[in-house]
């Protein structure tokens, strides 16, 4: 990969770090909706060359941003164990790719290639449920209370 390509990729993902730093919860909650919009574009315009190129570029950019979001989300849940968090991130990421590819293959064989994006939609729905659960249960205020309680009892 040439140096100019690395710079371009880095400049596309850099805003994700700023978004996460400035308002992590809004960024994480908005992400499934942004990715869902790209899936709609892929499904509706998949047979046309130029729209599919644009959609694929958006999809790839959001994929990079999604990696940042997932890394932040996992590490922020256990900042006292960064090695464990990173291992969990890698394990879950690989498992997600495996399950997603297998499910996508089943959808393609049963419904045809245009319908592979439904696997993405289903994944987005499941992720949105878990995002909303975590934002309700595991807020920064609750985290500091939980840490204080653990420190007192332990």
From TrEMBL:
Domain of life from the UniProt record: Bacteria
Annotated membrane topology: Multi-pass membrane protein
Subcellular location: Cell membrane
GO MF term list: transmembrane transporter activity
Annotated TM spans: 28-46, 52-75, 87-107, 113-133
GO cellular component, one term: plasma membrane
Leader sequence segment: none
InterPro entries: MFS_Efflux_Transporters (IPR050189), MFS_trans_sf (IPR036259)
Protein known as: MFS transporter
Organism: Cohnella phaseoli
